[in-house]
Specification:
Elements: H1 27-45, E1 57-62, H2 68-79, E2 83-87, H3 100-108, E3 113-117, H4 121-129, E4 135-137, H5 145-159, E5 166-170, H6 175-187, E6 190-194, H7 203-210, E7 216-219, H8 222-226, E8 231-234, H9 246-252, E9 269-272, H10 284-288, H11 294-314
Parallel strand pairs: 1-2, 1-3, 3-4, 5-6, 5-8, 6-7, 8-9
This protein binds phosphoric acid mono(formamide)ester (CP) and norvaline (NVA).
Phosphoric acid mono(formamide)ester binds at residues 66-69, 139, 147, 273-275.
């Protein structure tokens, strides 16, 4: 007779095929990935190896530049006993017009996982639709879910858990913001988002977030967002590919900078996915200040993505 009296939601037997948005994981799957990330981080610190992807190879396709994503994924594969291949915009036949669907099927015959940083999210969906191996979103114009894994891991470390933590987003309702909003909702974090009119989170993000336990409130007032927040998060106002909108966006975001004035009455930790544009969305004193956790976030990209890759390839 079974003695198992655990009535909590069981972990799905298999992880999702791909990780294109945060909610490709279930809330339980997300928790499992964050737990494994903490384990890997601890093991790495203790000098214990964890070659869970020994002999496995990842292809990394980049249409846009990167520091953290490229280096953390490549280092992560090395630490897991595997290998990663960097493919920049000029390194493949994609640059000479080979269709993504052909690239996807060819790469699937060689590698065990594909990570891609692309402009159009629909291109990533096409890549995934034709791939026989897991595809991971390394950032698109719409989403940056791997960043969210690192952000939630960082917040878990800061607060010992996530349920009931209060977060604020101040600035552009961009790719990083949209993934963060869904991730917060899935993890039980209550988020208030302050954006100027015309730069809000899209409706799909808000609808997705509504189906989870954390709440997402919206405002145009940064002071409303940061009041009572445990963490305050921002990102660049001009994302990669938006350079032509620079003047218009800088004007629209006037008053949305994270600085000593906005945070005068706040003890919140300050988060930024990096790279930071000091003097625009945040000032130098705030990035370098005692409440800043941006380097912890950056390091956690490594641990969180190792856990994600291991889970997608090997299961929970
Ligand atoms: N945060 C982030 O994705 O940084 P990179 O653009 O350097 O990869
Ligand atoms: N929103 C930024 C994030 C960079 C990591 C961009 O897309 O350029």
């Amino acid at each position: 007779m079974s003695t198992n009296t655990d009535t909590s939601t069981p972990m799905p037997a298999q992880p999702p095929n791909h990780f294109l948005t945060v909610d490709d994981l279930s809330p339980e799957g997300l928790e499992s990935v964050l737990d494994l990330a903490s384990t890997y981080k601890h093991q790495l610190g203790a000098g214990e190896s964890h070659a869970d992807l020994a002999g496995k190879t990842m292809a990394m396709l980049f249409e846009k530049p990167s520091t953290r994503t490229r280096v953390s994924f490549e280092t992560g594969m090395t630490q897991l006993g595997g290998h990663a291949i960097f493919l920049g915009p000029d390194d493949t036949q994609l640059g000479r017009g080979e269709p993504l669907k052909d690239t996807s099927r060819a790469l699937s015959g060689y590698v065990d996982v594909i990570m891609a940083r692309l402009f159009d999210h629909s291109d990533l969906e096409e890549l995934a639709a034709y791939a026989d191996v897991p595809v991971v979103n390394g950032l698109t114009d719409d989403a940056h879910p791997c960043q969210t894994l690192a952000d939630l891991l960082t917040m878990k470390e800061l607060f010992g858990g996530l349920d009931g933590v209060k977060a604020a987003w101040v600035g552009d309702g961009n790719n990083v913001a949209q993934s963060f909003a869904v991730g917060c909702a899935m993890a039980g974090v209550d988020l208030t988002v302050a954006t100027p009119e015309g730069y809000e989170l899209d409706d799909e993000t808000l609808e997705t977030a509504e189906s989870y336990t954390g709440t997402v409130e919206t405002t145009t007032d940064p002071e409303v967002a940061v009041a009572d927040a445990d963490v305050v998060y921002t990102d660049v106002w001009v994302s990669m590919g938006q350079e032509a909108e620079r003047d218009e966006k800088l004007a629209a975001f006037d008053g949305y900078q994270l600085n000593g004035d906005l945070l005068a009455d706040s003890d919140a930790y300050v988060m930024h996915c990096l790279p930071a544009h000091r003097g625009e969305e945040v000032d130098d004193e705030t990035v370098e200040g005692e409440h800043s956790v941006v380097w912890q976030q950056a390091e956690n990209r490594l641990h969180a993505q190792k856990a994600l890759m291991s889970t997608l390839v090997n299961g929970y």
